[in-house]
Design goal:
The protein has about 300 residues and is of the alpha+beta class. It contains ten helices and eight strands.
Length: about 300
Amino acid sequence: MADTLTELPSEVEAVVRPRAMRVVADRRGSMVWDAESPHGRVAVKVGYAVDGKRGYTALAPAREASVLRALGRPHIAYGTWERGTFSVQPWYDGVALWPLWEYRRKGPQAPIDYETAAQCAEALNRLHSDGWVHGDMQPAHLIADGGIVHLIDLAFAHGGSVNSRYDFPYPGCLVHYEAPEISRAVLATGTATPSPAADVYALGASLLISATGIRPMEYPDHAEREEQRQAVVDNKRRPFDLPGSFGVMVDRMLSYEPYDRPALSEVVAEFRAATKGEPKGKAPTGADPAASPPGRPVGVDPRGGGRG
């Protein structure tokens, strides 16, 4: 059986009944469409297995839908198809953090967008307050939309009850955003337990990478994940230069030990205080994360990628 997907499966098309659609993510094990349905604009996610090591990709869309329903989100549909599972959920308009902060990567002296940074921390804090951790924080999953940030792609979230039919062990996340304790556990056992502190680390890495184009840890751009994770465990931190309270807080969020990382309420308070005394960043320019140059591997493998 082919390890690819070329079109929306007929079982899914019958549920969505799309009037128009476009592919927004096409990765090994998953595809995402932005579709106009009779019920409005939706994100359609289809997962399929490609090999034994990545079998979770077949279950991820349905697992995310189960999480969203547990969180009380409306208008969520999901089911199975011949090679995996799918989900249909409302589409979020807005701009992801990476293209939003392109202005800062092009001009290191440009002001920090403390307002959006605070909104990102507030969004994650709301999820934690609901009793869940995200488990896959990265810039592509932070969507700024008119004064609020939406967290998307909750397939790896943990906290409440998930339909056991679609559950799977947590495999870790994109290593650029993976906390040392998660990398250590995945290297040792193949899985880990996501935590609020690991989410704080991942948010700090997302803010750093989006503002500078530099990942927190030093390893070759095309290193295998095992090598990347070992670099994280070995704490091969890269130096970075970010101004003011933003730099101080991001550095604390990236602390090696979980207990040294700040609470999200403290992050929010610090960034909110900074909005009163420092200018906000410029408007988004809509840059494409895939266009990042060698040595700045941001968004090179962002699992998920739908606005839902």
